[in-house]
Amino acid sequence: MQVSTCWKSTRSRYVLPIVLAGMVYSPSAMAVQLSDTVQLHGFASQAYVSTTANKYFGPSDSSRGSFDFRELGLNLSWQPLPYLQFAGQVGSRKAGTTDDATPRIDYALIDFTPYSSQYSRAGVRAGRYRVPLGFYNQTRDVANTRPSIFLPESIYYDAARQLILALDGGELYSEVRTDAGSFFLEYGMGRVILDDETKEMARAKTSYVWRAMYEYDGGRIRLAVTGADANVASFQPPFSDAKLNLHVYLFSAQYNAENWSLTGEYIPRLQTTLSGVVVPGVPGVYPDTSLPDIKQTGEAYYFQGTYRIAEDWEALLRYDVQYRDKNDKSGEANAAATGLPAHSFFTKDKTVGIGWSVRADTKIRAEWHHLDGTSWLSAKENPDPSATKENWDMFALQVSYSF
Amino acid sequence: MTESRTRAFLPTALSRWWIILALTLLSSPIRAQEPFVNNGVAYREISLTSLRAIFTMHLRQWPDGKPIKVFVLPDQNDVHISFSKEVLKTFPYQLKRSWDLLVFSGSGQAPTVVESPKEMLQKLSSTPGSIGYLPKDYSKEGGKNASIHMLEVN
After folding, report:
1. Are B101 and A308 inside 8 Å of each other by CB?
2. Contact check, Cβ <8 Å, B105/A107
3. Which of A41, A251, A380, B29 has the most neighbouring CB atoms within 10 Å?
4. What is the value of pTM for the model shown?
5. Sign of the torsion formed by the C-alpha atoms of B35, B41, B46 and B51
6. What are A342-397's pLDDT values in tens digits?
């Protein structure tokens, strides 16, 4: 175990220089236009994470820290007609033991806009598409589109990302542009894409998402409401008929000035329901017993300010909060009921960060997180909850590139 | 008598101020950059709402159905910055955000980046249905033989 960790971090040491060299010698943004109607785009990032305790994206709590967070992606789009587009992206993500860098299809879709006028349009996307959840979910794996190295975990919960990342199905979208602002409405359904491990015990059922967005004055003010219902069914005893439902409403608001932006997102109720759990009986002795639904209602929000200090420097301040159970914010009642530490039921994350755009396509970021609680840490990376520490700090560095 | 004179004077003075104020507001502000289109594009004016929709790559067809081809200068180019701010009344980082969302979610394409106003002029002249922007003086000097015309934003 120790040997493999050592070997991994030794190997990781070479990844950063290679990624950096790749960025320096990469073709300029001009190269993306393959023809009049075909474009190629891509992204890459490499992070370094160090924590005072608890594991986040690799052995971050070791003296060396972790280099096990990197993202790569390449996409092609073809727009043979102004109202028709074919697009696909292949991505790879390494995130400690939670994601193993296996290439996968991020999206593969046909986008058809049968109705389009000067002031409105309506269309449909079919295939695999990214879930329009809040402000950042659709491009969450592209570091250059994030406001920070890590998205606020309270809302963009990485440990549950397979339930909110993408859907295989279809999506209707419409847009109305007026002098008083633009209105966008999306409605999608489909099945979530489960990872290989989850696939062995569960299958995706039809999930739903909708988002209504309003943008005033070219995006000076942006407001959005998202509703999402993710459904997964288990087929492994004793959960043969069990269904997991994630039900959420997300409110998003942003103000954009020339040099600064303020962003806030809020989930008043994140409802997780496990239903249909049946304890098998013994024939002739006692019958099968259905357990009542297990429900948990969480709450999450963050406030974030970014300030563009100079043309290529940006500072970030954020306060990010997650409660697993909004009726037990201290986690004490849940701790008493489950034996898990109270701090595994909430997280308060104070973040300061700074970003430097080395070039238009390359960013270097550094950020410091001061944390109280461990609710969004991955159980895979921290298998023993009683071994986690309530108060911890995290330092992270990231180089990111996109074209 | 005095009273009625005062009454008569007041609206007159007010209306004078109103005229000056209205003229100030209505006279087109002096901008360094203007949107230009290929001469094949039949339109001479456009609303700010539509112009924004074109440059955020949401509006892809001219009203007559012909495809729109968008050219921009690099994000950090001064001409791009002032066109974004003064004409589109938004900021380069907002445009970039719109393009990134389209490009990395598969729902659209980014505009074509040209390296200089000179190249912009060439591309606009030679590409049917194209739109871009140029410094006003540049297009006057270098644009005598160019087959482009300005779009009035209203």
Report:
1. no
2. yes
3. A41
4. 0.88
5. negative
6. 999 999 999 999 999 999 899 999 999 999 999 999 999 999 999 999 999 999 99
For residue B76, give the nearest of A41, A175, A360 by CB distance. A360
The residue type found at A278 is V
Quote the strand ranges of A52-119, DSSP E. 66-81, 84-95, 99-100, 104-117
Q: Is pLDDT of A62 > 60? A: yes
Running DSSP on this structure, what letter comes out for residue A218? G
Q: Do A139 and B106 touch (CB under 8 A)?
A: no
Tokens of A133: 């959840």
| Coarse DSSP helix, strand, coil percentages of chain B, rounded to the nearest 5 percent | 50, 20, 35
Q: Between the CA of residue A89 and those of A118, A261, A327, B98, B133, what are the distances in Å?
A: 30, 29, 41, 18, 31
**B119 CA to chain A: closest CA distance, Å?**
13
How far is Cα A60 from Cα A360, in angstroms, rounded to an integer?
30
Q: Containing H/E element for B72?
A: strand B69-72
The domains located in chain A, with CATH, are 3-402 (2.40.160.10)
CA distance B38 to B69: 10
A136 in contact with chain B, both atoms CB, cutoff 8 A: no
User: What integer best gives the mean pLDDT of chain A?
Assistant: 92
Nearest CA in chain A to B115: A30
Distance in angstroms (rounded) separating the CA atoms of residues A160 and A344:
15
Which of B148 and A25 is assigned the larger pLDDT? B148
Q: End-to-end CA distance of chain A, in Å?
A: 38
Please, which pLDDT band fits residue B106 given cuts at 50, 70 and 90? very high
ipTM: 0.90
DSSP 3-state percent helix, strand, coil across chain A (nearest 5): 15, 55, 30
Helix/strand/coil for A182: strand
The structure tokens 């009049």 sit at A36
CA distance A67 to A57: 8
Pair of tokens at residue A65: 């820290």
Q: Which of residues 78-107 of B touch A (CB under 8 A)?
A: 85, 88-91, 93-94, 97-98, 100-101, 103-107
Q: Are A354 and A395 in contact (CB under 8 A)?
A: no
Residue A326's SS3 state is coil
**CB distance A62 to B47 below 8 Å:** no
Other CB atoms closer than 10 Å to residue A113's CB: what's the count? 23
- Picking from A272, A231, A226, the residue whose alpha carbon sits closest to that of residue A253 is A226
Task: Name the amino acid, one letter, at B3.
Answer: E
Facing residue for A87 by CB, picked from B52, B97, B106: B106
Q: Does A362 touch chain B (CB under 8 A)?
A: no
Contacts of A75 in chain B (CB under 8 A): 103-104, 106
